[in-house]
Amino acid sequence: MPDIPFAHASKGRSGTRSALPVREPLDRSWAWGSATGRGVEVCVIDSGVEAELLDDGSAFTMEQRGDEWHVVPDAPNDTAGHGTACAGIIRSLAPDCRLTSVRILTGNLRSSGQALAAALSWAIQERFQLINLSLSTRKPDIKEQLHDMADTAWYSGVTLVTAAHNSPVISYPWRFPSVLSVGSHAVADAEHLQWNPTPPVDFFAYGVDVPVNWIGGATRSVSGNSFAAPHVTGMCARILEAHPKFGTSQLRIVLSCIADNLE
């Protein structure tokens, strides 16, 4: 496998099937069969998503009122292309999911930690089955708040799929054990999944030279853990159509059991 020029990327290690907590092997026909994510509610918290990838009335943004941030309806738009790229990957794997966008990132992919917390709290309260977070924060003052939210999501049947940081730094929420965290591999296959036997990253998905949708109807080739995470979100949407009562723990086990690097 070629070297990947960012942290938290696959080293090509194999996982051991006997280490997984299942008695019988699981395969992808059991995991999702012909599922397309139909009816599964997915929220993308990012830079926004262009209209062609969204369901009607499913675009929101953040509005600051004094010291507080609030989620408010918005016209579909993307300030940077990043969210559209992530949403397009999810749609490519789970074309029939119900996709909602919450725009928190500016054109330079920056945001307030409190805006992130407010958006995540809203999405958890709305009980989206999956929340894609291809972003993280290094701010220590928001760590405990995000940690509590991730735990609340876990117990509420809401799964957070989070991208690991591209650099070797400590950031959140991807390092929390209650989320599914994703780094990158360089195998040019959207369904190629690797289980990581040495966390904190849980899985590796396609994240190098990925062809994606972009703003203005354009396409690009992009690299980064941000674009690996939505591949896992799309797979989870398929699993949840087939097994709608699954929570984060069940999704983690199923994804581990169908990984391509098990021996």
Shape: globular
Give the C-alpha Rg.
Answer: 17 Å
The proportion of residues in beta strands is 15-25%
Percent helix:
25-40%
Number of domains: 1
The major beta sheet can be summarized as: 9 strands, mixed
Please provide the ordered H/E string of secondary-structure elements: HEEEHEHEHEEEEEEHH
In terms of per-residue confidence, which ranges show pLDDT below 50 for 5 or more consecutive residues?
none
Q: Report the end-to-end length measured between terminal Cα atoms.
A: 17 Å
What CATH calls the topology is Rossmann fold
| CATH architecture label | 3-Layer(aba) Sandwich
Q: Pairing-aware structural class of the strands and helices?
A: alpha/beta
Q: What is the mean pLDDT?
A: 95
Superfamily (CATH H level) name: Peptidase S8/S53 domain
Identify the strand order in the major beta sheet. Answer: 3-2-4-1-5-6-7-9-8
- The number of helical elements comes to 6
Question: Number of DSSP strands?
Answer: 11
CATH class group: Alpha Beta
Quick structural overview:
With 263 residues, the chain is an alpha/beta fold. It has a single domain (17-257), classed as Peptidase S8/S53 domain (Rossmann fold), CATH 3.40.50.200. It contains 6 helices and 11 strands.
Describe the 3D structure.
The protein is of the alpha/beta class and 263 residues long. It has one domain (17-257): Peptidase S8/S53 domain (Rossmann fold, 3-Layer(aba) Sandwich), CATH 3.40.50.200. Helices cover 27% and strands 21% of the residues. It has helices at residues 28-31, 82-93, 113-125, 143-156, 225-242, 248-257; strands at 41-46, 59-65, 68-73, 98-103, 130-133, 159-163, 180-185, 194-195, 203-206, 210-213, 219-222. It has a nine-stranded mixed beta sheet, with helices on both faces. A two-stranded antiparallel sheet has the order 10-11. Helix 4 links the parallel strand 5 and strand 6. The longest helix has 18 residues, at 225-242.
